[in-house]
Design a protein that fits this description.
Layout (H helix, E strand, L loop, with lengths): L2 H30 L51 H12 L10 H7 L6 H9 L8 H8 L3 E8 L12 E13 L5 E15 L5 E10 L14 H4 L8 E2 L1
Antiparallel strand pairs: 1-2, 2-3, 3-4, 4-5
């Protein structure tokens, strides 16, 4: 092959490569500009189901913010700030008024109850960081997206510490019931609470401290199978928690 033929052959190869590169570049530019690449057209059945999952998500309520109108927990009426009993009841109804469709754990409800606390107690509540997990009872409530109804009863035979002109102690029994959005019902929070209140000037009475004793697990919540050792074993002794 002569030198001229070799040069013509190389030139032909270069021209062919140039044409290929130009075509590829043109496709890339069209695609990058948002134009549809016709080579990607496929027959699409509009009735075919989408491959992407379809579900509705609900944005969580920021900690300490009131629940919206779709929540199942009943709103707590504003208490008379000159009545320590009313303030204590309002705190209990709010702090244990869980709605697990909104609350990630009990602390979310505690933060909604901050307006009933003294400044010092409110700061302690904001700084509190719960340990890992909220317990098996909460997990059961959350599984059913349950909310709570509460019966709050004052102890008429209160033997707690006596009050003073600026401090008052009240003892209450809280008996809660959980209601699942799927129709399930079960025991809710059950406890005895000794509530300390102080007279905070023009703001009236505020909750300054709480000592909580959880109640024993009710029999209806214990497995009834005769083969289960838990059915015949005694309930654990309640523990006392000061907040």
């Amino acid at each position: 092959m002569s030198g001229r033929q070799e040069r013509e052959g190389v030139t032909g190869v270069r021209r062919a490569l140039g044409a290929v590169l130009a075509a590829v570049t043109g496709v890339a530019l069209l695609t990058g500009c948002g134009l549809r690449d016709l080579r990607d057209d496929k027959a699409v059945d509009p009735a075919a189901p989408s491959a992407l999952p379809s579900f509705e998500t609900k944005a969580p309520v920021p900690p300490g913010k009131p629940l919206d109108a779709q929540a199942k927990v009943q709103p707590v009426p504003a208490p008379d700030p000159s009545d320590p009993n009313a303030v204590a009841r309002a705190w209990l109804a709010t702090a244990y008024g869980y709605d697990t469709a909104y609350d990630n754990g009990p602390q979310d409800a505690n933060l909604r109850a901050l307006p009933y606390l003294t400044e010092e107690q409110a700061k302690a509540e904001r700084d509190y960081r719960p340990g890992a997990g909220s317990g098996s009872e909460w997990a059961t409530w959350a599984e059913h997206k349950a909310w709570m109804t509460l019966a709050i009863t004052e102890d008429d035979d209160d033997q707690g510490p006596g009050g003073t002109a600026g401090a008052s102690f009240r003892t209450f029994y809280v008996d809660g019931k959980a209601h699942g959005r799927d129709g399930w019902t079960g025991p809710g929070p059950r406890l005895t609470a000794v509530v300390k209140l102080t007279l905070a000037g023009p703001a009236g009475w505020k909750v300054a401290g709480i000592t909580v004793t959880p109640a024993a697990t009710p029999p209806s919540a214990v497995p009834s199978s005769s083969s289960s050792p838990a059915a015949s074993s005694p309930s654990p002794s309640p523990s006392t928690t000061a907040r």
